[in-house]
Amino acid sequence: MTESNPRISKAVIPAAGLGTRFLPATKATPKEMLPVVDKPAIQYVVEEAVAAGLSDVLMITGRNKRPLEDHFDRNYELEEALSRKGDDHRLKTVQESSDLATMHYVRQGDPRGLGHAVLCAAPHVGDQPFAVLLGDDLIDPRDPLLARMVEIQEREGGSVIALMEVDPVQIHQYGCAAVETTAESDVVRVTQLVEKPEPSEAPSNLAIIGRYVLDPAVFAILRETEPGRGNEIQLTDALQKLAGDEKIGGPVHGVVFKGRRYDTGDRGDYLRAIVRLACEREDLGPEFRHWLRSYVTEEMQPN
């Protein structure tokens, strides 16, 4: 590893969104705290960062997000109650969240898009490369996407984004990348990025999903980036400038992910994620799968 490509240790998790798609559940509860089986969605994301070697986590929050801080803090009263009951298993699960990483928090204030949320991390990150993890995308821990992205960034420098093939008719829901192949089948060189293009104008069916490893040069670009689609400062616009001029902050590579991804930002996918993860749990899976088979069989019967 060269001096110009230092080891990455910091992760940034934007979590200031209002979660309007899950109203009324998110009226008083942050969407990141909605449970996926028996853990809040945000804990899976922090665990992923830690598994990739990123032990310093900055969460970009907003109003009504205090439960996020409380979840990753100690709850001495609860721990004492569980200890008195001898409930060591639940005590361990409660303590796990507060022992995961060194957590930091900053408020975004005026929500002006993902690019602005990332810019809020500049004082904490400084001049080192860092990772950005979006909370709506849960990546199965058996498919270590972020660790692969960190590996590529530390070797090649610049920035690395996560890409996934999607149905071309769905590409308008994502940022989209034009790419060139490399000697590695899962790594591409990004030449162009377009935010939510119409299918007829999309350069590929490679969609950007919610994982980034970024060169700190992105901060200077974001400060000069005008609001784009939705009158928000788009991270994709800043990455497009990096991809167009490697002298600014090195190349932009993409890791094409073919593993298991759970989208918890959509109500239907959120429910499917819960079912998939519950089915695979050793403690819940056998009984739950049995019930699920029976339920589906009953639903298929004619009335």
TrEMBL record:
Any one biological process term the GO annotation gives: UDP-alpha-D-glucose metabolic process
EC number: 2.7.7.9
GO MF terms held by the record: UTP:glucose-1-phosphate uridylyltransferase activity
Top-level taxon of origin: Bacteria
Every Nucleotidyl transferase domain range: 10-274
InterPro entries xref list: GalU_uridylyltTrfase_bac/arc (IPR005771), NTP_transferase_dom (IPR005835), Nucleotide-diphossugar_trans (IPR029044)
Catalyzed reaction equations: alpha-D-glucose 1-phosphate + UTP + H(+) = UDP-alpha-D-glucose + diphosphate
Keyword Transferase attributed: yes
Keyword set, alphabetical order: Nucleotidyltransferase, Transferase
UniProt xrefs under NCBIfam families: galU
Similarity field: Belongs to the UDPGP type 2 family.
UniProt cross-references to PANTHER family, sorted A to Z: UTP--GLUCOSE-1-PHOSPHATE URIDYLYLTRANSFERASE (PTHR43197:SF1)
Name of the protein in question: UTP--glucose-1-phosphate uridylyltransferase
